[in-house]
Amino acid sequence: MDKVWTIVRSVLLSALAVAVIIFSVYLFNSLEYYKAGEAAAQNLEYDNVVVIDNGASRILFDGPGTDKALIFFQGFQIEATAYAPIMHELAASGVDCIVLKMPLREAHFLEGAATYTLQNFDYETWYIAGHGSGALAASEWASKNADKIAGIIMLGGYPEKDITEVSRAAIILGTLDSITDQAAMSEAMGYLPASAQVLGIEGGNYSQFADIELMELDTPATITPEEQWKQTVSLILSVIEK
Q1: 57-77 average pLDDT score
Q2: Is residue 171 within 8 Å of residue 157, measured between CB atoms?
Q3: Do 131 and 155 touch, CB atoms closer than 8 A?
Q4: Residue ranges making up the domain that contains 26
C-alpha cells in the first residue's frame, strides 16, 4: 500500500510541477505586453465631443449618440488603452464604446463582464467587437447571446463557434496581416451568417488596429496607423449602419 501511495504522490507532484511551470510561463507572457503609444494617450483626453471614463475594469467613450454602443475585447498582450484612437472616433460618430479591461490582458476572462455591461448600461442597440484573441472571445460570447446584440465585428480574428444566429457579422483584416491564421479563418467561414462580410484594408496589418509598436511576426504596414484607424472606423460604421 505504501508503494502505491508513493507512486500516486509522485504522479500528483509531477502534475503539480508541470501546472506551475505552465502557469508561470503564461503569467510571464501576460506581463510582457504591448504598451499604448502617444496617439492613444491623446485620445483619452477630455474634449468637447467625447467624454472619457477610464475606470479600473473598463474605458467608456461617451459621445453624442444615445442609442447604440459597442463592447470591445482587447487583443492578447495589448494594453486596453491602445484602442483609444478607433474607439474615440466611433464615439464621436455616434456609437459609444466600452473597452473591457482584461485580467492579464487575456480576453477569455471577459465573457461575464460583457453580460454585466449590457445589464448596467441603458442603450437600445448593442454590438460586440474584438481584436485577435479578443475577437475570438467576443464570438464565443456572441454564440451564446446572439439575441442580445445587433452584430459582431472581428478585427484580425475569426470565430471558432457557430454565430450564424447573429444578425450582422464582419471580419476586418489588413492585407499585410501575418499574425491571423488565414487557413484557420477560411475553415471558420462556416460559423458565420450567410450575410457576413470579410473586409480588407489595403496595406494594413494586424498591429495597427491598436496604437502599439509592430508586433513580433507581423509584417510592417505600408499605410500609416492613422490611415488604418480611419479606414477601420469607416468599415465598422458601414457594418453598423447597413
Answers
A1: 96
A2: yes
A3: yes
A4: 1-32
